[in-house]
């Protein structure tokens, strides 16, 4: 596949949506944002269906969030410790939670995905706090739709307004998204202050009506 041409990407980008967006829920350095934004830029050139791209991204985002949530709610995170790579991932999760805070409110579950590392932190914290599965699923679904719309929209807007090659439009969209995410992260961090890392389990779970 020639990564510099729209023909090289085309429909092949759909195959990467699920593994990368789901994987990003556990390992934030995976560049799922860049993939979705690139898809939006390709949609501006008519090479990708924007609605299908957004739908697949939203579903993958929700599934990834549920994976992390259930991993911590069912106290299965220790399974990661069986392997060296798993221990690194587990430690990285706690570092991310420590930096992003451990809020498990529904607003945080929806909005944290727009902050670097926030999606992982919010999902894990919600699982530890034993938020109801129904409530979390609804928030993850809504958040996934909003996030998918935002990311794909960035690429589409950049591609349709600049008329640059799709890869250039993608870089512009990534830059704008990253800048906004960093600004939001700074604001959230300052408002939360220096909080301690999350311990497993949390003594005061968020109360909600049923699973």
Characterise this structure.
The chain is elongated, with a radius of gyration of 18 Å. It has nine helices and no strands. The termini are far apart. The chain has 211 residues and is an all-alpha fold. The protein has helices spanning 6-9, 12-26, 32-44, 50-73, 84-100, 106-111, 118-128, 133-162, 166-192. Helix content is 70%, strand content 0%. Helix 2 (12-26) runs antiparallel to helix 3, helix 3 crosses helix 9 and helix 5 crosses helix 7.
Layout of secondary structure:
Blueprint: H1 6-9, H2 12-26, H3 32-44, H4 50-73, H5 84-100, H6 106-111, H7 118-128, H8 133-162, H9 166-192
Helix pairs in contact: 2-3, 2-4, 3-4, 3-8, 3-9, 4-7, 4-8, 5-7, 8-9
Structure keywords:
211 residues; mainly alpha; 9 helices; elongated; disordered C terminus
Q: What share of the residues lie within helices? A: 55-70%
Number of strands: 0
Mean pLDDT: 77
Distance between the termini: 45 Å
Rg to the nearest angstrom?
18 Å
Number of helices: 9
* SS strand fraction: under 5%
Could you say which overall geometry the principal axes of the C-alpha atoms support? elongated
Structural class, from helix and strand content? mainly alpha
In short:
The chain is built from 9 helices and no strands. It has helices at 6-9, 12-26, 32-44, 50-73, 84-100, 106-111, 118-128, 133-162, 166-192.
């Amino acid at each position: 596949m020639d990564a510099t041409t729209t023909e090289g990407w085309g429909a092949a980008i759909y195959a990467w949506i699920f593994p990368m967006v789901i994987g990003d829920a556990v390992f934030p350095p995976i560049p799922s944002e860049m993939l979705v934004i690139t898809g939006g830029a390709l949609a501006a050139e008519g090479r990708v269906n924007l609605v299908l791209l957004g739908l697949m991204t939203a579903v993958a985002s929700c599934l990834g969030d549920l994976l992390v949530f259930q991993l911590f709610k069912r106290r299965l995170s220790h399974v990661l410790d069986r392997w060296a790579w798993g221990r690194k991932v587990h430690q990285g999760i706690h570092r991310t939670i420590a930096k992003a805070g451990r809020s498990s409110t529904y607003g945080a579950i929806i909005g944290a995905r727009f902050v670097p590392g926030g999606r992982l932190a919010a999902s894990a914290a919600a699982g530890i706090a034993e938020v109801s599965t129904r409530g979390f699923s609804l928030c993850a679904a809504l958040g996934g739709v909003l996030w998918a719309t935002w990311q794909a929209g960035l690429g589409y807007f950049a591609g349709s307004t600049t008329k640059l090659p799709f890869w250039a439009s993608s870089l512009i969209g990534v830059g704008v998204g990253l800048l906004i995410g960093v600004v939001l992260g700074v604001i959230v961090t300052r408002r939360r202050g220096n909080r301690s890392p999350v311990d497993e389990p949390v003594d005061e779970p968020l109360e909600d009506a049923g699973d």
